[in-house]
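the three lines:
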Amino acid sequence: MMEITEGSHAVAEAVRLCRPQVVSAYPITPQTHIVEALADFVANGKLDAEYITVENELSALSACVGASAAGSRTYSATTSQGLMLMAEVVFNAAGMRMPIVMSIANRAMGAPLSIWNDMQDSIALRDAGWLHFYAEDNQEATDLHFLAYKVAEDPSVQLPALVCFDGFILSHTYEPVDVLSQEQVDTYLPKYAPAERLDANDPISFGMYATPEYYLEFRYEMNEAQKKAKAAIAKYGKEFGTLFGRDYSSLIETYRLDDAETAIIAMGSVCGTVKDAIDEMREAGKKVGLLRIRVFRPFPIEEIATALATVKRIAILDKNVSLGSRGGATAIEVRDAMYGSTIPVKGYILGLGGRDIRKKDIKEIVALCEKGEGDQFIGLRKEVL
Amino acid sequence: MAETCKTCELFDAGHRACGGCGAALAARLVTKAAGTNTIVVSSTGCMEVFSTPYPETAWKVPWIHSLFENAAAVASGIEASLKKQGRKEKIVIMAGDGATFDIGMISISGAFERGHDFTYICYDNEAYMNTGIQRSGATPYDASTTTSPAGSQSFGNKRPKKDMPAILAAHGAPYVATASIAYPADLMQKVEKAINTPGPCYVQVHAPCCTGWGFEGEQTIAIAKLAIETGLWPNFEMVDGRITKVKKVVRKPVTEYLKTQKRFRHLFKPKQQDTEIAAIQAIADRNAEKYSLDIKLPPKKE
Amino acid sequence: MALAVGCRFRPGKSRDNKTGSWRVFKPIFDHEKCSKCSMCQTLCPEGCILEDADGFFDPDYAYCKGCGICAAECPKEAIAMKQEEK
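prediction for all of em together
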């Protein structure tokens, strides 16, 4: 059913439809509307879940680990400072192979303290073993939750998943969203039925420790599970398309890339602006296209290399920066995917801490890229420096 | 009701605890009292490490370990899940003093404040033993540990034990108790009571550590008894915040306990530190008063 | 044995670890003196003292670490620690 709805509410509705048995979250801007909406659902009988008002984010995700191990589908949401506070549990949940789904309303990392959007938070934990989905708009933010649970819970995957969408820009913006019905979601997402759980009828010890004889193999298995997630995303993303008309089988989306000379790589809500800028640049005769990354983990290495094989230059947008390196995470990982190619790759840091990105910024980036300039911050206010 | 299994061994042999380990005995006794319909949540620590090197686990009940500081939060999630599934297993947390008194304070406080139905057992060996005997909030006054060592400028740990039972009673815990491996029947009774009391209950179990405290493993029970007999470990129960039962003793002077352990050796050698021993005696005397530990002996006949 | 997902396992394999090899001293149980109080069984940190058909107790030497708690606590002094001969 088509609704004009706030991003947070659409996400909360999607989570409700996934029928989690345990919701455990701590409030933090700009995720608060999600957890408030879920609490409201529980209080009014629209969501049959235990809602744990934990005392901090570390406990939020820890409770999810316990609930998941006991056999429940669970959910949490956080951002920025909260995600870092629970960072230890983020690694732990992946290593324990708990298929938790957690929404991230992306927000900048302090210090300095900022409540506004960029992608540093989830990017900083990309090594932990979670699946990473990045939404362009509220429709995707909603749909990706259904996909995330199905992929995470697949027996060949069994990894937790982050569903990331830009804080404020998506979470607090009203957009038209097709929200599925409960019957529709029930046909797509079955009940969570893990092969192993905490159960007095079949005692198992979860979270044992691994000596050097075993640890390497456990981490290898997690990496293999990331690879298998690609196949699971293709399968379940396609199934979603067949059932509901929106196909999520691909880890990337391309826009006017086929004959492009300049390829822009980006993630998240900025891609809407990029697409508009591309249309204007095309009007003016420039052959520009977009490769949007929708799944950052597992990273679409081959897909990117294939899609960019014939472009003349690559401009990568990052709303994050790996301080002290050449640039942002997307640039670093795309450059790795393109290794061996002679196509010039340049990265651009922009939009940090909620700095607005406009079509003219995108055009400026393309112009810089054409001149072979890049690996720099965009939009610096020189008068402030 | 929890189904106890007094003849079951739910904590298997083959674990890697030191010979004479108080904590291993505590694990055996607690799981006996808890029975098979139990899910155990452990924090990182000696007990977790000596009982679960992959693929060998000593736990014959369902068991989970996540991290050091979050056992109470993990247990909260399990409790919520079981509630939703309509399952009746009892949840028993087993955490050391480091995990309980220090790093786990936040998650414990939150879980107790929310009133989850579980039993929290702290096996108290009075230091971070698994990492090599470092000081915790449970380390007694003047005990020498590697981070509160006795030396020419120091008599060891400068602070008395944190009063965790009082803190958790203040959270509204309906049942709080201290127990000791020295009195296994009493320990098991208290664990059973805690498990069968709805809400978050706490039992702090004294588990002397021969390796960390410096005594021969065969003395573990004897030393646990001396801790109680000197008044340094009061054994009591609190129901809804009120002390209801106390093990009374004919008190021995604290020196009888202190002289048995290398961690207090600096109070006797190279010379006896009377001021420090008096300070420790004062702690015991205060315990005796607070908990009414002393058996009032009839006056001696002429 | 395939690697278990998430580093978890069912019970049983701790028994592969024969901690009896740690022993320096070995407890010898004298049934003549034993009053069948079962304190030795209750207090053994390994849980390896087993009751026989007559109600007497003996350690499972495959796991007994020789800690000596049973000997120290036996009210009848029915258990003696003897140096193990290797």
